[in-house]
Structure formats: structure tokens, C-alpha cells
From TrEMBL:
Polar residues: compositionally biased ranges: 627-645
Alphabetized InterPro entries for the sequence: P-loop_NTPase (IPR027417)
Protein name, per record: Uncharacterized protein
Region (Disordered): 47-81, 236-320, 627-652
Record field: compositional bias (Acidic residues): 245-257, 283-303
Amino acid sequence: MLTTLGRPIGLLGLYALLLSDQPASQLAREHHGALEKALQAAIPKKVPAPTEKPGSHHRPLAGPSGGTEIPDHAMDANPPGIDAAALDQLTEGLTKLQELAGTLATRLRATAGDVEVGRAIPAGLNALLTSYDEQLENLAAELAKYDRTCSASGFDAVEQQLAVWRSDLADKEHARRQQVAKRIDELKRSISGVDDLIANNPVPGLPDIRAKYQRQLDELLASLAEEHTVCTDAVPEVSHPSSDQNDDALAADEEQPVVDHEADPEQPESTTCSRTPVVDAVTEPEPEPEPEAEAEAEAEAEAETGSAEESPLDSPWEEGTPPVAVALVESGRLAEAYWVTAMSAEPDRRSAVLSFATAAYNAHNSEDATAVLGSFALNGQELGRDTDAAVLATTSLLRAGLVAGWGPQMLAQLEPTLGILPTPWHELLKTAIRATRVQYRIEPTVGVPLTADTDEIRTELGRRAASLAADLPHRKNLYQRGTRVLQRLVREGQPLDNGLQAVIAWSNGTGSNEQLTSALESFTGHDVADELIEAADAAVRTPKQTREPIIAGARRGLQRAVDEVAALVREAHAVSARIGSAGSKDLAVGDALRRAVTALQEQPTPPGMAGSAVKLLRDWLADPSNTSAPASLGRQLTLTDDGSSTEPTTDVLLPLTDLPWAADGRPDPTHPATSAVLARLTRPFDITEAVAAYCKRGDLRRATRILELHEHNYWGMEADGARLQQNINAARQDWIARHRKAVVEARDLFDRVRAQNLLTQSDDSTVSGRIEALTTVSDDDYHAASRHLANLVGELTNLQQARIDELDAQLDTLQMSDADRLRIRGLLEEGDTVTATEFLSFALEGKSLPDNFDPGTEDLSVFTQFLEEGFRNKLDTPHTSVHRWAELAEPDTPLTNQAKIGIEAWDFLTDPTARARSNLADNVRNILHTLGVNCAARPNAVQPRARRGFRVYRVSATPNDGSYISDLGSSAVEYTVTVVLDERRGRSLLNVLDPEDTSRANIVLYPHAMDSTTRQEIAANAADSKAKALVVDPAAFGWIAAKRPSSWRATQRITLPWTIFEPYKPFVAGLVPPEVFVGRETEMYQVTDPDGGLFVYGGRQLGKSALLRRVHSTFHNGDTRRSIYLDLKAKGIGEAEPASRIWRALTIELKNCGVLGPKVSDEAPPDTIINNVKAWLAESPRRRLLMLADEADAFLTADSRGESTPGGISHFRNVLGLKELMESTERRFKVVFAGLHQVQRFGHISNVPLVHGGPEILIGPLKPLDARKLVVDPMAALGYRFERPELVWRLLSATNYQASLIQIFCEELVRTLHRRRGRSQSVPVLVTEDDVEAVAASDWVRSRIAERLRITINLDDRYRVLTLVIALFSLNDSFGTDYGPEELLEEARRRWHAGFVELTASQVSIYLDEMVGLGLLSRLPQKKRYTVRSPNVINMLGTKADLERELAETDFDRPYEYNPREARRLLACDEHGREFHSPLTDGQLHDLTFNSGISVITGSTALGINRVPDAIQNYAEMRGTRVEKVSSDKELKKAVTDAVRRRSSPTIIIVDALKMPLAEVDSVSGWLVDRLVKKTSPQNVSAVLLATPTVAPTAAGKADTEPVRLERWTARSVRSWPECPFDVPETRELLIKATGGWPELVERTISWVINGGLTLKSAVQRAEKNLSDSAAYHAHLASCGLDENLIRRLENWVEYFQPGEIVPPEDVDAALETDRGSSQALLDHLSMLGVLDEYEDGVAVDMVVHRCLQSLRGTS
């Protein structure tokens, strides 16, 4: 349009646009350069005004890209620093100048219109231009005072500079306040210090000093208070307009006529002109173009349209006909208009206005509308310079205000900009503004006439309040603490309930407006929600929670609940106020709105964005209830997680399938095609094509979203939803398979790269985390996942290729045969750099390459081929000599002598005549020798004569070369050999085994050849019957005799694949069989090397004890090398026993192994032991003695404590003795201490005598190759071969390379594969990826691995907290960041203040380094920075929510310290590893041992009364006290007499009176009192009387003592159990709840976990289930001492009370229907039996006993 005006006027209009900061179109920008030149050319000319003389002119202004010149005098001065007052003055000047610019721009645009239609130029325009020029120059001069480089080149630049200065001032002020705060803290500390001095040493002058400090402090505090008051007073109070004020305003408006704000061109400017916009003049119709010109214009338009698709859309409010954004707004597509604008070059205010408009038009109730109005944050002055944006903002504010029932003050500020609209449209907006001022409200579901019937609204509000009152008490917060707070808030009489009840009462007419007003006051205030939450939390939180704030997620949920109620109360109050004040006024307003809307029916829509905005409001006012139109606005708002609205939803952009997206889920603003693609939003949308496009590229998330929205009529069009869903499902299955394959390939590549050590520890963790995150595509966006995977694979491929290139270059430099070179190059081409590297090391050493790598199944593969060939040669014919099988195996190799003997013995089995002549047992022995089992003696026939065609022998033997299976090797005490003489066609060979023999080390000799099918049938039968036996037939025996004679391992390789033996033993608590003990060669060497380390440390279950036991078994040869293994914790040394007891334990073991003679006393002093050991070593220079002290933490701690000696305080007295023995023997005697993290710390303490004894020996995860061997070798022996080597590394990754975890995984993998025995028709059996993944996903495996890992983490709650903290950090950072001790300490203190408040960062570093050793963390080289060793560690611990909840809700404990009043010593272990503990604590044993009189102990069998003698003997004999047990009067008297004679030796006599008649107990106790309690009684004799609870009080009374009552375990005392798997308070509580703490039940449950492999949860469930069995609960009640009489008396208790219910004494009387005395007597007896739990407010029968009584009652 401007170009048609001609250059002078057109350029003037363009200048006006640029001056007002309007976004210029592409065409305007093209004419910008011409404008610049024209203005420069016009400088010497004048712009004449109608009222000016021809010679007058005004100074031209700079264009938008130019700047006003700064005066020279301003450039010369030194700019002073700006202060707040000057900054405010500059801001005010800028604001005035912007207002003037807006006015000037409006006048210039109007002038352009006047000139176009032939009118005269208005007067005063030059004066206005001059004023603008002067003010701009003044502003530039003012800016230059403070910054010479600053120019007034544009309002945005000036605003940015002012913002920078304002930020600098804020920073300075903040720094000043920090200094003041610091000074205040210093003064407070000084005052406190002076107060202490005054209190302790009142020196004259101190009060004056204190007063001086106090004055300074008061002055600083007063200044801060004054500043705060000033700041508070400066903040304007924000409130909704009151109804009275609005009524007055409306009345004033109605009194004045409606005036059109059209400017009179002839009227001179007034002071109000700058605030009154000029109305657009009516334009004349444009002349029709000539035909040729029209065709040319159409061609131009087509060309422009075509180029628009290729070029960015910079100005969607201006470009196009109509502009894209304008068209979208007019059709109600505000969200689309927002995104088109936000991704363009339009000013931010325009996209902000559209975002607000989207929210406003989506507010359908007063609550939402009020929230939307409160979110309006746009600057009114800025909007005033952009008419289109101002009109859109006004209509949006009116839309929300009419729904909310009030209008913001911003409407008054924007109202002057509305004058550009034609009169009818302007009148509509004015009428709507007046409606908001009187709090007129439109209910969208009702429409404009919301005036007459308010009862419906009132009823609806009451219904909503009642619904909310019913819902809130049952809501569950994510965290339990949050739920309790919410329940408190909605309790009767509390704020939320009061508010809801006030609304309900008002709604049904029983309440008043005053009640609503009072309720509203409860929700008025800036932080009212937080205050209400804090008050409720204070009433329900625990003491520990007082120190911690409510979790943010829980707080948000509580805030939403408070906001819901508050909004409802506010809405009811507003309706109430309107009902009381509206009346006929609401009717008048509604009529006025309807008239204004009706008046626009025939009016054309104004052009541009302003027109679209008013049309949108008009359409809504015409039908507010219509929200189902195709252009529905209700689909355009998006919400954040906490429910607050943000920018419009991106769902509206789904039709654009080729739209570039950024990582944050928004369109990519940096992509050149984004704006051009967004311009296509005005085109028609084809759902089917869009879904197909998304499915094709794998973006199923967006495809699914399109379909979901279609089901809600989001798009307003028809489509076959079922067909689309089918297409998406089919695409999903395709992409799942493709993605799974891609992930497998990525994992395989990662495993190869990891195995080559091509990644740093940090990169390893990062890559592992990335793969883990990409394993599942939870959001269905396979397109993004594939892109991320491709990037990762590319990075790893580059790493691997670089390594391949490096090795290939190295290969060219080495001398080797061509065959070896080709072999290595082939490995490199396959990417197997691990093996290639190993082979290159051979070449470097000049060695030839080893044979091709065999995963252990080569023998099996050869044997199966050999078997087929034998059957083709008819070697299965009866009575065929096994020699022929041997010849077939090795036709050109002569047999060894042992092989010949074995073959001859085997042939006797097939010859009945020979069997009769020879002794079959001798032949069996020779056969076993050939198989590799050396018999210590002649086999013993279990059944001397043949029975049912077979004979059975038992023989003690040892494998010649080890075993793969411990059941057939190290654990086999003897072998059961079954010789099956008859052929068993149609019958299972394993049926010959007796049921009790199925789990023995069974060998079956079967002299009839079996083909592959028969072997598979045996395997299938073994899987079904669980029978374990190694079956040897002629084929197997001939193969062994010819190829591997006397090799038990070779025998197993060709026989185990058809058995169900299991090699892995993960639950043996340190007793790891040698068959599955791999690696640790370096550690073992360090332990045995005289100069090696002395401290072995590591976490629980990482292999410390296994290592020491392995060293013990391999080092000790019974001759020149002797080793001693001591479990110091099991012996109580350092806890129940003093550290010096180590010498007694050492003496006993030295005597057992022959180093000390039998005459050496067990109580010999250390010097004697040291001298004797020296003497033994001196007898031969080849002799060595190795002392392995396991579980040494408590011993070292105890020995480190100071001990008084004649020479003063001595530390490490016993360690010094051992050190002296080491040094004096040149370390031919060596001691090694093993333990947990404390042992490592002792290795660092400078005053430890052994601190320089050698490097510490860390026992952590296995080395990769050792771990691989633990997986592959046993599996191969069983006939299982991994399909791909990478599967092994996958397995190891899932187990963190920890031996115990590997065994757990492999045990389940073997069992899974065994269950398929018989179905597989070929061996070796391939282990597939599905097999590994199935086990990895098994809950059984995951829970056991997690619990085993937890054993290490729960070693110390500080480990636990630090692990959880770094785990959460890593999850939040996607495993891509490392952390320093300072930041971890800060977070740990926040999570557990008491546990970390005293620690420093350097001390935390020690913990972190220990956690590195435990295999939990990795430390970056050369840095004190830490990362999680593997994301799998985190995955084992639980989900992010689990970890967060654990940190928030756990009551952590300080590290356990030995407590003799709780600790119970270990007495024995059975063959299954189950531990039996003392029923007495160490403290009780100490008291009994040192009591010289009589003690009475009572308790039931369930409490372990039968173990008391063993416990006392175990404790007393270590102290040199003799213990004798008697059970009759006669035995007692003899024992006392003998003890008295041994005056020098103390004796404890245990009198077992449990089965004595009452009279005999009375006699015995009386005799003991007479003999041992008198002053003349012998001091070396004491007695312990074991009595039943019935007689114990009487017997104790005679001895004037209290009976010692045995007690059950408690959750606290279980902490003293070494290596207890129930190692945190939560699990210990579960254990005690399930077992009642009864020793038998506790020990059995713990054993199920340690030795049986059950999880903690499974073990607890099993304990509870076992007691539901009739025999079990009968037995338990009897062992607790409950006879039929007691059980009958407790029937009412069981009937009336629940298990664990605490019952007051008076309720006991009522329930049992007895008097107080009888009830108390019963309770006393139950207490003596230990079945009663006593509390301050009552008693409860033990829950386990209660459940047993319930079960008994249910069956009676």
C-alpha cells in the first residue's frame, strides 16, 4: 500500500511504522534502504507545515538502525557511577519518550491516510516532531553521563542498558547486605564470647565492651528493619476492585454519552492527544486492475506463494493475505497462532499475548479465569505501542474477566488504544469493560443471561464443596507424611473443612454471608497455603521429620488441595456478594452486552489482528456455551506437572509431520525450515497421512497422540480410528523388533569396547547409562531412540576402529608366521580385539599362538561325532570289547598302562563268566582310576549280591585333576558307584538309584552302549526325577581311556551334559568350593608372600573369607608350610573376649597343626608362644607359618585402645607381639588380618605397628577375564555354550563382576536350562540371548542380587546414605557427571544431619575411597571425583522413587558398637551352615562366670534353656574356668567336693533341675545355699541352677537372688548378629514380627537366607507360613511351656484381642473373667515363660504365640 502512495508519502508512513517499533514486513524491509537514502538526501530540505513559514524546518531523526549523536561535552567528562535515583529518573524519561513516540507514530499514520485521500496535513505535526527529537537527544545525553559508549539507538537497546545497570545495582546491594549480615554474625559471636567471659571470669571492663558490641548490632538491625519497611511501603497493594467502587464507576459511565474518539484534523493538539489514538479513516474502494495487470499480479502471487514454502515466515502478523497468524486467530486457533508467532521474528510481546489469549479462552469457570487473570504479566506501555497486540490483549482480558466476574486495572490502561476500531466494535469492548467493573459474570455453560436464576449456581457450588469434602480425606499423597498432613487439614474444625462446610451451609441456606467472609479470611494472604500446611505438619510429624522439610512433590499436592478449597470459597463469596448487590443492575448489563453483540451482525470485521481479536470475542459473547465447534478453543491449553498453565500445547502442531523439533519438546527455533513449515497450519489436515508418516519414521508417540485426540473429536473430522490403531500397532511391533535388535547390537559393541578397556571409568559409566536408558522406549518415540542409538554406536565404532587400527599397525611390526599373522588379522576383522591383543602378547614374547579358542565344549563336540561313528560301525553289539571304542577314538596312539588296566576291568563287566571268576569290587576300583578318581581303599559293597540286575558300592576317593562340580569333587566324602549289569530297555537307568542316594555323588557304570537319543532320555528323566548321577557307558569309557585316561575333568566334560548337576554354590557363606573359586592369583600371592600385604579388606560377601580359606588349603602342606585360619569374630575376640584372647586361640590352633606340642598350656603367655614358634621355624630354613586372622575389625579396634602396663599406656600390645615374631623370623611367620572397612583404616593409621607391612590387599569385584572364566568353564562342562561371547559380558555387567552375584545369576541360568533337558536334540546346547535376558528379568534373581548388594551397602548407614545420594545424583544427571566429596557431604548432611554433621570433606573422602574398594563407586584418575561404578548397581538398588523414599523415610543408625547386654556368641554350626547362638548375652555370661555364689536360670525350650550349659562352658573355659554339669543330688555333692579340693582352679557347677521332682529341686537348692552361700564357703566354686519357670522364683528366693530369665531376640539385639542379612531396622522388624524373636525361629529364618538362598521377604513369609501347620504350632506352643491348662485359660484372650494388641490390665480381668489377683498371677507366669510383651500402657501376648493359639482354636 505504501508504495502506491508515491515515494515521499509512502516513505513517511514507513518511517512511522519503524519509529513505533512495529515489526516490519519483508516488503517494508526491502524499502528500508531507500528510506535511509531519501532521508539523508532530505537533510538540507525543509518539511513545510501549513501554519509555518516556508523557511522553517525541523531536525531530521535517525532511522531505526541509527542513533542520536551524543554531545561532545558529554564525551569529554568522566562518567560517574549511577545510583538508584538516577536510574529511576532515566526510566521515567524513557517511558515519557515512548509515550510520545507512540503518539507521534499514530499521528504520522493518520497523516499518511489524510494525504492519500487528499486532505491537508494537520497543524502541529512539526512541533511534535521537534519535541520528540529534543527529548531523544536529552535522553542520549543523560545516558552518556554514565556510559560514553551508550547511545539511544533504539528503545530496546536503552531498556537493555537500564536493565544491566539495574542488575548491577542489585548485585552491589546484595553484596552490601551480605557484608552487613556477616558483620551481624560476627557481632553476635563476639557478644556470646564476651557473655561466656563475664560468666566465667567477670573482669572489669567486659560489660562496657559488650554494650559497645550490642549498640553496633542494634544499629545494624535497625537499619535493616528500616530498609525493609521502606521496601514494603513501596509495594502497591493488589486487590480486586470492590463492588461499591465498580458500581460508582459504572454509574459515572452511564451518565455520560458514548463518544466516538475520532480525531478532528482541524482541532489543535491538547494535552490528552498523546493518550487518544487516532481512528483509522474509512478507505476508498480500490480501482479494479486492468486485465493484463491482474494476470501479472496473479503470476506474481503464485511466485511469492511458491517461494514462501522455501523461505522463513518472519512476520506472520503482517505477511500474507490474510497473514497466517491473523487467519488462525480468526478461526479460533490461538495455540497454532502462538507457535507460528513464537517461532518467527515477531516481538516477544506478540507471542506472549497469544499465550495469554489461549489460556483466557480456555477458562471455563471463575476459578480458572481468576488464575489466568493473575498470570497476566505484560507491560501496558509496551502494548500501547502495538495496537494489534493491545486489542488482542484487551479481548483476552475481557474473556477471562467476564468468566471470573471482575476485571483487572490493565483494562483501563489499554482502553485508549481501542479507538482505532470502528465505532460498533469499539462500543462492544467499552460495554464489556463496564461489565467487568461491576463484577458481572458470564457462566460459559449458561451464557450471557446469568442474572435471573442464581439458585442453580448456588446449588452447584454446594455440590462441588460436598464432593470435595468427601474426596479430600481419601486422597493419597505420594509420601505418607503428606497424606497425614492432608488428613489433618480436612479434619473437622480444621481450615479446609471449615471452608468447605461454610460453602455447603451457604448453599443450602443454613449459613450466612458472614460465615463465607470468615472462611475466606482463612485463605487470604501471600503464603497462606504454606502456613496452613506447616501448622498441620507440626501437629502430625515425628521428631525426626521436624528436621526435614516436606518433600517438594508432596508439598505441591498439598498446595493444590488448599488452592482447590480456597478457589471454591472465593467463588462462593463472589456469587454471594453479587446476589446481594446485583439485582436489576445485572439485567441491565446483560441487556447492554446483548445489544452490543446484536449491533455487529451486519458489520464487517475490521482488518488485521485487531479485527480477528474482536471478532473472536464477539463470537464467544454471541454463544458462550458453544465449546464443541471445529475450531474449539478448549483444546489449546497445556499444563505443567504441578497444574500451572504454561505455553499452549504442541498437540496443535501434530499435523506438521516434517516439523523440526528441539530436545525440549518444542519446535526447533534454530532450524531454518521451522517457520516455513509452521505456515502450512492453515492448510487442510489429513489424519491418515499424518499417522502413516509418523509410523514410517518411528515416531509412534505422536501417531498415537493424533489418534487419542481424534477419539475426543479434537480435529473435528472423520477418520477410521480402528484402522489407524491397527496401523499403529503393526508399526509398533515392527519398531520394537528393530529397536531391540539395535539395542542388542549397541550392547554387543559396548561389551567389546569395554572388554578392550577403551573407555575411562567415567565414560564407561556414562555409556552404560545411555544404553540402559535406551533399552526401553516408554514414550513410543522410536525415531528419537534410533537417532540416539545411532550416535552412540558411531562413537563406540570409532573407538573400536581406532583400537583395531592401532593393533593392525603393531601387527605389521612383529615377526611371526604368515598363518599366525592371518589368524590375528582375521580376529581384528571380526572386531575381537581382546583375543587379538592376547595373541600379540604371545608374538612379542616370541611364542607361537595357542590352539584355537575353545569355550570348553570341544571335547563334547568331538565325542558326539565319535558316538555316531561308533554306532555306524555296530560297536553297540552286546559283549563288544570296549577296546574297539578306544581304537576308534585314537587309532594311531598306543594306550597307557592305566588305560589297558581299565579296559580289561570294564570288559569283565560285560562277560558274565569273567564276572563270576573275578572280584567285581577290584574291577570297579580300576575303572574309577581310569576315569580319574583315585580310591583310598577297596570299594565297599552295599549289596553283596546282585539284586534286580545291579550292584552298589561305596568308596572314599579323590579326583585326580579336580572337578567341575563340587558334589563330585571337594564336597564328596564318598562316591556311590552303581554297576548296572543288565540292559534296561524301556526302563530309566536312573531308577536303580535309591531315593536316599539321588543327591549323593553317584556314578553309574552301564556296560551297554547308549546312542544320543538314549542319553537325551536319561537327561529328561533326570530333570523330572531330580536324580543326579554321572552315567558311563562303553563309548564314554573307551573315549576317556584312549584320549584322557585318569582325567576326572575330561570324564565330566563328556558325561555331565546329560545330568542335572549344578556347579554354582552362591549361598555357602565363605566356604566357596575350589571348583568355583577363580582368579585372585595376585591377592593370594600377596597373602602368602613374606613381603606381601598384611591387611585384606573388602565388603561383605565379596570373597575375603573365601580367599583366606583358599590360601589356607593351598598353602598348608602338613610339612614345611603350616597355616592357621582364625575367625576372630566367631570367637568373640575384641568384643566379648579381650584382644589378648587371640594368643589362646592361636595356641590351640598351633597345637592342632603340630607347631606346638601338647604339653604347652592353652593359657600360655605370649612370650612362650613366640619362643616356641621361633624354635619350630629354626628347625628348618624351609619352614613357614602363615596366620590368617579373619573378621579382625573388632580385634584391631580393641587392641588399639590404651592398656595400662608397668611402662605406661600401651597401644596395640598384641599386634606388637605378632609384629615382633614376624620381624625376628624374617617373616617366615606372617600374620594377615582380614575384615571390613575398619581394617583398611587401620592400614592408614600411623601408630599401627604393621602400617608399613606391605600394600593393602583389596578384595573387590573379579577381574573381567576371571569373571568370564567363572561363567564359561562350569557352563561348558555341563554342555552349555553361549551363542555369542558378548552374552557373557552382558551377564557380567548385570552382576557387577562380583563372584557371589555371578554365582546367583548362573545358578538360576543353569536351573532354567536344566528344565529343558531332554527337549534339546543336540549338544552342546546353545545359550541364547533370550535365556540370559529371561534370567536377568527374573524377580528371583533380581531380588537376590539386590539383597546381596545391599549387604555391602548396609555395612554402615553412612555408606548407605552416600550410595543413595550419589545414585540419585547420577539418575538425575543420566550417569554423565562425577561428584566431589564436598557436594556429596552437603547433600548427605541434608538427608541425615546427625550422621554427617561431624564429618569433614576429607573424612567423607575416606568413606568414598572405601566404597570404591567395595565395588560401589569409581574414582577418577588423579582426581578426588567419584562416579557410580556401573548403572547396574543403581538398577539393583531400586527405582528413583524407591531411593528417594528410602532417603526420606528411613531412620538411619550410627555404626553398630558392641554391646555385651545384647550380643550373643556363636555356639555351633550344623552341616548346612545354620548357626546356633547362646541364649544368654555376653553380659549375662560374664555375670554368671564371676559370681561366686548361686545363680538361677529359667526359661523354656523355645528360649534355648537346653543350650545354657554349652554357652557357659564356651565362655568360661576360655577364661580357665572348669565347668561341670550334674543332674542329680548325688552328682552335685560329688562335683562340689571335688571342686573344693581343686582350690587353685575355679569351677562352675551347672545343676540341671529341669526334670527334677519338686521335692528334689527344693532339697538341692537348700543344700547349695548351705554349702556355697555362707561366709566360710569355698570361693573357687559357684553353681548355676537350671529350673523351670514354676520353681525358679522359689529356688532363687532361697539363694537371695533374682532368677535370670532367658529372653527372645529383639530388633535391636539382632544387630549384634555377625553378617546378619536382616541388616536395616525395617527388615529386622519384619524378622521379629514373623518369628517373635524366638531363637529357634530366628536362627532358622536367617539360615534360609544365608544358606538356602531365599530373599528376606521369602524367608519371612516362609516363617509365617510354617507356623500355620498343625504340627508346627502344636510343637511351638509346647516348647514355649504352654500346657493345655494355660492354653484353655488364654482362649478368651485370643477371642477378644488381636495379635500384638496392647491390653490394659483391667481389660485382661474382664476378658479372662477373673479377679485382679488371679489375672496378675497368670500374667506373672506368662512373663516368666517369655511369652508376654510388657509396655507402659498394658501387655500383649507374643504375636507368634497368639497366631499359634488362633490356629489351634480354629481347628478345635
